[in-house]
Amino acid sequence: MKVQEKAKQKTPPQSAVLEYEQQVKYMKITVEEMQSRLEKMTVTKGLKTWAYILHDLDTDGKGGLKAPHYHVIMIFDKRKDINSIAKQFDDEPERVIVRTKDPKTGKRQSIKTAIDNALAYLCHETSGAKAEGKHVYPPEKVKANFDYIAWAKEHFETMGSPKDIVELVGTGDLTFKQAKQRLLDEFGMYALSHNLKVLSDGAKVYNDKIYENWQKRMKEEKHDVKVIWIYGFAGTGKSHFATYWADDEGLTYKRLTSKHLFDDLRDLSIEEQDVLIFDDFRPDTLPYSSILQIFDPLNVGVSLDARYYNAYLMSEFIIVTTPFSPYEFYQTMHIRNRKVDTFEQLSRRISVTFRFTPEDIYVVEPKIQRYVDNLPIYKYVEIGESSPNVWSQIVVDDGKKRIRSLDELHLVSQNAICRELKKGQKKSSAMNEKTDENEDIDAESENLPF
Questions:
Q1: Mean pLDDT in residue range 437-446
Q2: Cα–Cα distance, 169 to 175 (Å, whole number)
Q3: pTM over 0.70
Q4: Inter-residue contact 367 to 430 (CB < 8 Å)
Q5: Which of 87, 98, 266, 322 is the S-S candidate for 15 at Cβ 3.0 to 4.6 Å?
Q6: Are 316 and 263 in contact (CB under 8 A)?
Q7: 255 and 279 in contact (C-beta within 8 Å)?
């Protein structure tokens, strides 16, 4: 009986080097939440170093793929028991591995050896993993709170030949941009120039495949592209709001400038472009027909011209920031036949429109004010209540800049306007109704170029 009681009270294994491993389908928390908890543990648990990777190309020895799973390496300032760390992931202690013991022999190894082996195993760069023929992952796939790529260059015997790097682009393990940098850093300018075309060809083959899968998924799940239009004077925080909202929703984003609008898209994976921000968008940036194509919610998966090869737009959100309301934007564009290429074509593609002033944010919608030459003239009217513009750089109260607290930022980002934005609700059917002449009209839309 005493032996049994003693066994029950046995201290759980402890180590300063631990690994959490779990299949994606069994994880209790999202990857974003996992990283957030790792960052929190650096403050609350003495976690000095962390790194993790998704293994989604491991083979099972029978020609098939193993279930995708994550490896998370954690290095603490002192030993931690596996029970307490497992709780950080809402998981069981058996999912946490003591890395100061050799995984194969069970023999103890030094902290330094344990750290080197654990970090190298993330990419299957240990001697044991290589002997077993495990798939080798590029260091760029690892997420860490330190420069893992620099560490890998110092510790791995080889980072691959130019041919190996080219192959990684074709499998999607490296982006076009990452591969170019690897070739330049490791093999020099000659190797880069010699392999540049095959790199671009490999990236195009991979993007074609990903695009087809993404488009199929979007159509099957009946998703569409949601367009958010934000307009107002310079300094009213339009771009700041766009990036803050994407971060707050846990979405990746890419800011595109008018000068080279789509050049960087070829370097992006699908995971890096949840949101595309058309920053400071101008009427002379794209032809009207191209804008309609890109904004068409049913035309998911648009191929865009870029310098090296076509880049695919695979984003679920497009945010436009501009000084112009959608109607002002349309009126300023060079359009040959406005009876054919109407404003309504653009308007119905926009999920929600915000007007930013130095002090407030308004949700607005277009309404017909009058007709000129049988063409409707629109002005924007406010709908619902406004929200304080805490992103504005020009707001002053009694000559002093308004204090913006983090709590206030969070409150505004979670208000009803943002919920409406995320749902992609369409403007009301009242868009085509004529407004009363005495109705309160957006003052910025008074000087229309017609």
A1: 37
A2: 6
A3: no
A4: yes
A5: 98
A6: no
A7: yes
